[in-house]
Amino acid sequence: MKLKNVFPFILLLISFQSFTQIAPDTYYIQFTDKNNSPYSMDNPGEFLSQRAIDRRVNQGIDIVENDLPVNPEYLQGVVNAGATILNATKWLNGVTIYTESQTVVDDILTLPYVSIALKLVYKESDEEKSFFKNESFRTLDPGSFNNERSTSELNYGAAEDQIDQINGIPIHNLGYQGQGMIIAVLDGGFVGVEEHPVFDSLWTNDQILGTRDFVHPYDQDVFTESEHGKSVLSTIGANKPGQMIGTAPKASFWLLRSEDVMTENIIEEYNWISAAEFADSVGADVINSSLSYQDFDMSQWTHPYSDMDGNTAPATIGADLVTSKGILVCNSAGNSGSSSFPWNGAPADADSVFSIGAVDGNGYRASFSSIGPTADGRIKPAVMAKGQGTTVARGYSGIETGSGTSYSSPIIAGMSTCLWQANPTMKVMEIQEAIKQSASRADNPDNEYGWGIPDYMEAHAIMTSIENQMTENESVFVRTFPNPFSSELSVEIRTNKNVNVRFELYNVMGSLIFSENHKNSDISTVSPFKHQLTNLNGGIYFLKINANGSTVTKKIMKR
């Protein structure tokens, strides 16, 4: 993971003189430092929740200066000059403001802690904009839901295919459905989430932890303007058996509006950063962002392809920073695959963001799904999920199919949350790597499919396979061969004394199949389950070996 240098900003640094030609409205103010801050890295509980602190501790991440909030004296100075504060960003050490007076801008520029460059980030538009390009919907007939086919413990209704495609059902069957995990959904509005029956359990069980509006910070009602966030949320959190169940139906959620659906302006990238900072501070584990930035209402803000280098766009810088705090960021690759700009937009171009493309139910790439490479030659997207004909919630009670990478991304975000729940000691980039290595094109990734369609049970197997586990006080070396095996498996065991050894064989569902005990000398080779393995079905299994209290788990494969 590379941490980006956020200074100087490449995008649209505008001198003070240029503002005299443009009616003032909304600006980004860059502060020079965090000197004399009342906050201290030695007391992070003043600005981070305990969950956010624990996440850093668990992943070996230090509290650093960019974790400190913007100096409140600096913000007060901007207010005293006559500006209205919109959103501060501690990671970039700045603030977005609104003012109708050029005099206010002049006064702010005289403050000793404000840099000489200001950035115009917004110009009002009279037109309502649609930022979810190339997305479409089709009403589903509830009678068409196939509720008999599944062998799962959950009745997914119309959403089964999109979970089964990434082999997520076995993860759910193991009991990992998002319990104790927090997902932040960054979007443009959540109309209908309060009323739609697929979310009843979220409200009943207090799984909606809260909301925050970064577009209208003085209004704070995210259940207006757009239902896109509702459709996105449904692919993760829906829990209406027989109709629709999402990929993490028992997770908890923060609903954050960062996208202004009425315009397409670069201030939305700064809103995105502030929302991501908030998600970090309240202890989110995963962020889903079904948002993509490249083309804006005013052409001087539009990102050329050269900006898609993982270093330049503001949201990209913010996305790498939030990942550096130990949060998994799943982001739509974009819906521009058939356009003159077919590449991943920001922040999906970030090197540590999990960019998600779209396939149909047969696993073929949707033509609209944005492609790679990034401007600096990296493969994008990372992986694919169903984004064409995806089952989503619509209106106040409907279930429809929708198309767009907006829906493939949250499918991956939710299932990755369950995978992380099952493997809580893993770090964020280890989670990404295991998912990629489980995917259908892991041996030959490309810029249309990335690493392909993941297999979440295989990813779970990758992370739970512990090779040659040893401790300082007692050493146990285990080697299995051949692996994969056809009918007989041999296990070489080396211990520092004679011990009793117990072998246990589990299937990928976590169910115990066979067990037996052996006496072991300091070095011996045994063939456990010699007769039983002959009739075992082909597939992945886990061999657990316990030798005098020291345990080794091996992933094995029957041909």
Description of the molecule:
The N terminus is likely disordered. The chain is globular and about 85 Å long. With 559 residues, it is α/β, with parallel strands linked by helices. The chain folds into three domains: 107 residues, no CATH class; 329 residues, 3-Layer(aba) Sandwich (Rossmann fold), CATH 3.40.50; 83 residues, Immunoglobulin-like. Helix 8 runs parallel beside helix 9.
In short:
The chain has 559 residues and is an alpha/beta fold. The chain has helices at residues 50-58, 72-80, 102-109, 160-164, 169-173, 200-204, 228-237, 267-281, 314-324, 405-422, 428-438, 456-464; strands spanning 26-31, 84-89, 94-98, 114-122, 136-139, 182-187, 208-213, 239-240, 244-245, 252-257, 286-289, 328-332, 354-359, 383-386, 390-394, 398-403, 476-481, 490-495, 499-507, 512-520, 523-526, 539-547, 550-558.
How many helices does DSSP assign? 12
Q: Strand order across the biggest sheet?
A: 7-10-6-11-12-13-14
Range of helix content: 10-25%
Low-confidence sequence ranges: 1-24, 142-150, 466-474
End-to-end CA span: 37 Å
Q: Give the second-level CATH assignment, the architecture of the largest domain.
A: 3-Layer(aba) Sandwich
Radius of gyration: 26 Å
CATH top-level class of the largest domain: Alpha Beta
Structural class: alpha/beta
Major β-sheet profile: 7 strands, parallel
Total count of strands: 23
Q: How many domains make up the 3D coordinates?
A: 3
Shape: globular
Q: Indicate the proportion of strand residues.
A: 15-25%
Mean pLDDT across all amino acids: 87
Oligomer: single chain
| CATH homology group of the largest domain | Peptidase S8/S53 domain
CATH overall fold name of the largest domain: Rossmann fold
